[in-house]
Amino acid sequence: MDIDQTKIPQATAKRLPLYYRFLEGLQASGKHRVSSSELSEAVKVDSATIRRDFSYFGALGKKGYGYNVNYLLSFFRKTLDQDELTKVTLVGVGNLGTAFLNYNFSKSNNTRIEMAFDVDDSKVGKEIGDVPIYHLNDFKEMITESNVEVVILTVPSHVAQSIADDLVEAGIKGILNFTPARLSVPDDVRVHHIDLSVELQSLIYFLKHYPL
Ligand code: ATP
Description:
Residues 81-182 form the CoA-binding domain. This protein is α/β, with parallel strands linked by helices.
């Protein structure tokens, strides 16, 4: 089935990786079908939303059968470009950056950090988790050569904006920003911001004020 991906709402698109990861686990354990309530329980999205999400790509589900896991996975692979390896680079090999290099999305077969950059001479030239670390001065040249468009940014917040400017100038199209800084970028560049301390504080606030 050919699906016009521009018609999938952004909120739905954001949930796809969540569904994908769970379904992959199901497939690995030999399961061929799943009900929306089972999915709902696992990914913590209500089943009406799941049904609506899935209806955008023609997976309607059958009463008493549920959804076909293989069909869903093949759709997600196409939509999320899971068949295509997306090369990612990381800037800022501090504590958080180092953790990412060691982790390196080993459970995903489509994203991999290929190289990392820092300005600290004691880190440049080394490897962490098989990922080579280069000097930030070489960034533009290196990423042009290797066609990288996505950067994970784990630098101190006071240098984040100026580094982001350089990344954009070098042709980067997506930044996963782990610094507390709010970045200004041109309209054709996408920034997703993950501030771990804000996320944690928000969880604690909700636990306190909106107990389940
Ligand atoms: P983290 O914030 O990940 O816990 P940390 O506390 O170990 O890290 P930070 O001071 O936040 O260290 O710096 C993170 C990394 O960013 C360090 O490796 C540092 O060398 C690097 N860094 C600092 N300034 C720049 C810069 N201008 N360009 C690239 N990397 C930089």
